Amino acid sequence: xxxxxxxxxxxxxxxxxxxxxxxxxxxxxxxxxxxxxxxxxxxxxxxxxxxxxxxxxxxxxxxxxxxxxxxxxxxxxxxxxxxxxxxxx
Length: 89
Fold this sequence. Notes:
- By secondary structure, this protein is mostly helical.
- It has one domain.
- The protein has helices spanning 3-55, 60-83.
């Protein structure tokens, strides 16, 4: 193996390592954002349930059902909007 080939292989390894590190950092950021979003959603869940309980005369079970349906509906719309492929220009 010549020096040139060794240098080329070393450069490929370094570039591959840099790409891996970049992707790993992106994955960590996504995981942290997801965890924070879950904490936020759990906090809002209590607020929504209490608000629905005061607005309606539903029983506690019906209140939880309505809360779950509203949260599911809003979440599905958000996922749909975020998952749409950006239009190509």
